[in-house]
Design brief:
Helices cover about 20% and strands about 25% of the residues. It has 14 helices and 25 strands. α1 runs parallel beside α4. The chain binds fe (ii) ion. The site of fe (ii) ion has 6 residues, from loops.
Length: about 575
């Protein structure tokens, strides 16, 4: 592993042909200010939501109070010296938008690298980079795929690692961009020792709370470096509102916390203020989008939390009276598979099928779905023959629910009922729509679970729909914090018990470095060796290739696997 210390400055460079990227009738050159000072732009810069000809650029000004707002000039250029201007203008930051500025820059050229920055009074922001979407022949698209970033759980070393590599086309953030817990909440036990305490110290409920949390996360130097280096394509998962959220509430929305509608509205308002994303419909819950990368790939990002999701099933309510496989089967049939338990509404499903159908018709080789929660089928492995009473007693001190966890593992029920496994009717409907449209070759990237997953995707009849890559967390605790050195054994048992699971690694924090070329895609599962210090090492935990195969796609060429992992990957386990 190579050791890195904290990144200090964004070192931007490019090998792209810049001359082709400027606007033909470039506007007047932006008048640069005198000295660079970061206090006015204490939260850095970000960009995202690119099309071939436009992009959102974002910043926030600090220290302003005037009711009339603060004028913020912006400029975008095809080189880092800002002497090849492509566009410029002025926007006003208002208190009612929490002093954030979001500009939808138009008339850009497709497939080009741009640099942008802001100026308020005489202070310049740091410079950011973004790439517009290509429109024509495209040989490579490369994403950094991340999720689950808890301030109190550690330093954002993963973001630092991504910021250091200039060749990503975008960062795909699959949600849990922050956590709503107060100081010392779930996953935050490390916070005290490393000096990272959530602000505000209490759980987020109001607009002021959500804004304060966004502001705190955006002070992180590694987050700032990453969003300056690359455009961000984010979706939210549950923690941007509250744990295990659905249309009518959340596991972490309780009595005395006001109405769910008010809390959700506050969370979404702050989200759109602080994230470089557009809303084009007026309904803030419409957070599904499509991005076309030339003749190579269409990325669709989905919303499965707030717009249609039915109430999750609390499996614990059923397992306590479960005394054998018949009880488990009855639960599966009567409760789990109950019809009309939605994850997405018809409009979103139609959108996904339409966008992927257009991609297929245009001859693009790849269709990629950015997705919140695990789509593949993950059932518990029977742990009862392996975990003895003395093991349970040893773990019970730190994990009170371990006894039930082991007992219930025998029933082969969903590992994560909050994922698509808790909505199998909705998953079959979705797969049915994809199959009917001839879309059985999708690649899905997923966050949420805090562990790496490499899964085949099949419907209940065994038809393959595509493949799934689950990325682990940036900082949130992995299963290693529960199982310790027994984690690999647990992973093997789960892999062996699930024919669709090809590889499962719950040991590390990290991200997926995912590169698409015309004939193959390469997924490097990158691990970091610590999030508890700013100095860290990073390297590949494993690597896989995805290749088109008839009407489908398949994983090949695993690298970095143990003998047993390799056997399980090949289906010989
Ligand atoms: Fe998470």
């Amino acid at each position: 592993m190579i050791k890195f210390s904290r990144r200090k400055l964004l070192a931007a460079s490019t090998a792209l042909p810049l001359a082709a990227c400027g606007r033909v009738d470039a506007p007047q050159q932006f008048n640069s200010g005198q000295s660079e000072e970061t206090s006015t732009f204490a939260h850095g810069v970000a960009s995202g939501d690119m099309t071939a000809n436009s992009a959102i650029i974002w910043t926030r000004v600090s220290g302003k109070t005037a009711e009339a707002g603060a004028v913020v000039q912006w400029e975008i250029s095809t080189n880092e010296d800002f002497d090849a201007p492509a566009a410029s203008g002025a926007a006003i930051a208002y208190s009612e938008n929490d002093w954030t500025v979001k500009v939808d820059v138009k008339d850009l050229k497709p497939g080009c690298l741009y640099y942008y920055r802001f100026k308020s009074d005489e202070t310049l922001s740091q410079a950011g980079r973004l790439k517009t979407l290509p429109e024509t022949a495209t040989n490579t698209v490369r994403f950094a795929v991340v999720s689950c970033t808890n301030w109190e759980a550690g330093f954002f070393n993963v973001y630092d690692h991504i910021a250091r590599d200039d060749s990503f086309d975008a960062v795909l953030h699959l949600g849990d961009y922050f956590y709503e817990y107060g100081h010392g909440g779930w996953g935050g036990s490390a916070g005290k020792a490393i000096g990272r305490a959530h602000e505000p110290a209490t759980e987020l409920l109001s607009l002021a709370d959500y804004r304060t949390r966004h502001a705190q996360y955006r002070t992180d130097p590694n987050l700032q470096a990453m969003t300056a280096a690359h455009a961000l394509l984010p979706i939210w998962d549950d923690h941007e509102t509250a744990n295990d959220s659905w249309t009518g509430g959340a596991q972490n929305h309780n009595e005395g916390e006001g109405s769910w509608a008010d809390r959700k509205a506050a969370a979404l308002r702050a989200y759109y203020e602080w994230m470089p994303v557009r809303n084009t419909t007026g309904n803030l819950e419409d957070m599904y989008k499509s991005y076309s990368f030339g003749d190579l790939l269409t990325l669709v990002t989905v919303e499965t939390r707030l717009s249609a999701r039915a109430e999750p099933i609390n499996i614990d309510n059923y397992t306590k009276d479960m005394n054998g496989p018949e009880d488990a089967e009855k639960f599966r049939t009567d409760v789990l598979y109950a019809p009309d338990r939605l994850m997405m509404d018809a409009a979103q499903t139609n959108f996904i099928v339409d966008e992927f159908s257009k991609s297929k018709a245009a001859g693009q080789p790849w269709r990629l779905m950015g997705n919140q929660v695990v789509l593949g089928r993950l059932q518990t492995a029977d742990l009862t023959p392996h975990v003895k009473e003395e093991n349970i007693l040893a773990m019970e001190k730190d994990w009170p629910a371990v006894r039930d966890f082991v007992k219930n593992s025998a029933y082969g029920l969903p590992i994560y009922p909050d994922s698509w496994d808790g909505y199998p009717w909705a998953r079959e409907q979705f797969y049915g729509r994809l199959k009917a449209a001839g879309l059985t070759d999708i690649v899905v990237v997923t966050g949420d679970a805090h562990e790496f997953w490499v899964n085949d995707l099949t419907d209940d009849g065994g038809t393959k729909i595509g493949v799934e890559l689950g990325t682990t967390s940036v900082t949130s605790p992995t299963l290693y914090s529960y199982f310790g050195d027994d984690t690999p054994d647990y992973s093997m048992l789960v892999t062996q018990s699930n024919p669709d699971v090809r590889y499962y690694n719950a040991m590390h924090n990290g991200y997926i470095d995912l590169t698409f070329t015309r004939n193959k895609a390469n997924a490097k599962l990158v691990k970091v060796d610590t999030v508890l210090e700013r100095a860290y090492g990073a390297g590949a935990a494993a690597e896989f290739t995805i290749r088109p195969s008839g009407d489908s796609v398949k994983f090949t060429s695993p690298k970095g696997l143990t003998m047993l992992q390799r056997a399980l990957f090949s289906g010989l386990g």
